[in-house]
Amino acid sequence: MQPHRLFGCVLVLGSLLLAASADSSPIIGVLTQEVFSNGLISQHFENKTSYIAASYVKYLESAGARVVPIWIGRNRSYYEDLMHKINGVLLPGGATWFNQTNGYADAGEHLLQLALQLNDNGTFMPVWGTCLGMELLAYKLANGTDHRINCRGTGMALPMELKEDYKQSRLFNASNEAVVALMVKENVTYHWHQFCYTEADFARNLLNKSWRVVSVNSDLDGIEFISAMEHTKYPFYGVQFHPEKPLFEFVKPSIPHSPAAVLSGQYFADFFVNEARKSPQSFANATEEARVLIYNYKPEYTSILGSTYVQQYLFTDKEMQLEEIGFEGGDDGDDGPSYFPPGHVYGDGNGAAAFLSLGTGPLLASLALRLFSIDF
Ligand SMILES: *[C@@H]1O[C@H](CO)[C@@H](O)[C@H](O)[C@H]1NC(C)=O
Ligand SMILES: *[C@@H]1O[C@H](CO)[C@@H](O)[C@H](O)[C@H]1NC(C)=O
Ligand SMILES: *[C@@H]1O[C@H](CO)[C@@H](O)[C@H](O)[C@H]1NC(C)=O
Ligand SMILES: *[C@@H]1O[C@H](CO)[C@@H](O)[C@H](O)[C@H]1NC(C)=O
Ligand SMILES: *[C@@H]1O[C@H](CO)[C@@H](O)[C@H](O)[C@H]1NC(C)=O
Ligand SMILES: *[C@@H]1O[C@H](CO)[C@@H](O)[C@H](O)[C@H]1NC(C)=O
Ligand SMILES: *[C@@H]1O[C@H](CO)[C@@H](O)[C@H](O)[C@H]1NC(C)=O
Ligand SMILES: *[C@@H]1O[C@H](CO)[C@@H](O)[C@H](O)[C@H]1NC(C)=O
Ligand SMILES: *[C@@H]1O[C@H](CO)[C@@H](O)[C@H](O)[C@H]1NC(C)=O
User: Fold this and answer.
1) Domains: count for the chain
2) Within a domain: 31
């Protein structure tokens, strides 16, 4: 081998290693969601006003990411601060309307506005929407026009029906042929939704200019809907199905757990976490990071109480109002950062400036829902 070629190899390898070590463990924000005042969680747990299904956390962790919960019901400065520190956002599925004040959809709007701005400003900020999260992505980027139609898509395990030009999508341009062959042959994706988007509607309203449809599927009545999409300009991705469920949810017998279904779910986790690795942002220091990570909370075993989620993280209004950082105590001599046990009050609480200035926002206590959308 000629010397200059060897040098070239070393250079390329060196820069790959640098890139990988700089941000190889991205931190992804997962949006919380309001619980129903008369629902299962409220019946069993006092004062819990929001949740994250633990499967979304495990899903991201399985691909090498760490997770920070993003609270609902906060003001702009909270979301703005956090969005300058995390490396990606996951909007999970669930059961809520888009018209509730201070809930999932309002928080989602802040996050998406900020993600658009960050990307426009040259800072890579990927967003992933699963099921209701995909619906929220499309809805907010259509400036609040709801293009969803009713669908009968509950409890379906289906193969991917990739569009002919799927190889041109970012989601699949680097995909392994063997994995794709399994995805299109076996029932790898799990659907549980009562709404969906159609290609015809996207074309009619020119949403097809901003979204590339990557795959479609048909509901129980044969209505074809968009099952995976990516934004043509921004690193935004949406799937109507649940890649996390074959790996981490076991309550419904209809959820596929075959090797192919697990591989397929993992494919999407790996893809998105790799996107987040491209984000250059970080927290100010290890303490600030440790203080907000999901490890501060313990998931509850909720399927045993009747939930379709095996485990859920549940949060009270109080937990969603982070204490101030303040004095950081005698860990300065330690090798690593100080990690606090769950429930520990960080700092002495007397510090002046709160780093995440959190509103006390009246959180949904009086929320009384007659109907709700179930796009788990
Ligand atoms: C729930 O909130 C009420 C009112 O603040 C409080 O008295 C009660 O102790 C809380 N319960 C739990 C389990 O935290
Ligand atoms: C929110 O939307 C749902 C479904 O369209 C509707 O039933 C409900 O009345 C709406 N709630 C408010 C507060 O507008
Ligand atoms: C993007 O840049 C504009 C103009 O400099 C600035 O006002 C805005 O705050 C930036 N947005 C974010 C999310 O950093
Ligand atoms: C939404 O509004 C923005 C800003 O006005 C505009 O650039 C964009 O084209 C609109 N999108 C749709 C789908 O109407
Ligand atoms: C896939 O697309 C991304 C983003 O456009 C690009 O950076 C990458 O090089 C492409 N990969 C392949 C294998 O074409
Ligand atoms: C996928 O599911 C359908 C409907 O349940 C079933 O008919 C089909 O045999 C399944 N395909 C595979 C490859 O398991
Ligand atoms: C979007 O749909 C319209 C109407 O069918 C069509 O004219 C246009 O070419 C489509 N655009 C893209 C990017 O597919
Ligand atoms: C960590 O960052 C926070 C927020 O910027 C700051 O208040 C704190 O003093 C920093 N701690 C250390 C040890 O640098
Ligand atoms: C956000 O809420 C905090 C805490 O209540 C408050 O100090 C801050 O002024 C609020 N920011 C805005 C922009 O309203």
Assistant:
1) 1
2) yes
Q: Does a structural domain hold residue 176?
A: yes
Look at ligand 1, atom 12, and give the residue with the nearest C-alpha: 46
Q: Is the minimum distance from the CB of 161 to ligand 8 under 6 angstroms?
A: no
Measured between alpha carbons, how far is residue 350 from residues 56, 230, 325, 347 in Å?
35, 45, 9, 8
Say what the pTM is. 0.85
Which structural domain range is residue 219 located in? Answer: 25-318
Tens digits of pLDDT across the chain (376 residues): 344 443 433 334 433 433 333 458 999 999 999 998 889 999 999 999 999 999 999 999 999 999 999 999 999 999 999 999 999 999 999 989 898 889 999 999 999 999 999 999 999 999 999 999 999 999 999 999 999 999 999 999 999 999 999 999 999 999 999 999 999 999 999 999 999 999 999 999 999 999 999 999 999 999 999 999 999 999 999 999 999 999 999 999 999 999 999 999 999 999 999 999 999 999 999 999 999 999 999 999 999 999 999 999 999 999 998 544 333 332 332 332 333 333 333 332 222 222 222 222 222 222 222 233 445 5
* Residue 1 included in any domain: no
User: Exposed e or buried b for every residue in 327-365, given b needs 16+ CB within 10 A?
Assistant: ebeeeeeeeeeeebeeeeebbeeeeeebbbebeebebbe
User: Is 242 noted as a catalytic residue in this protein?
Assistant: yes
Structure tokens at 236: 């935004």
- Domain assignment of residue 114, yes or no: yes
Residue 316 CA: nearest ligand 1 atom is 14
Out of 131, 151, 196, 231, the active site residue is 131
Span from the CA of 175 to the centroid of ligand 9 (angstroms): 44
Nearest-CA residue for ligand 9 atom 8 is 357
**Where residue 256 sits, what CATH number does that domain have?**
3.40.50.880
How far, in Å, is the centroid of ligand 3 from the Cα of 77?
Answer: 13
Q: Which ligand is nearest to the CA of 207?
A: 4
Residue type, 178: A
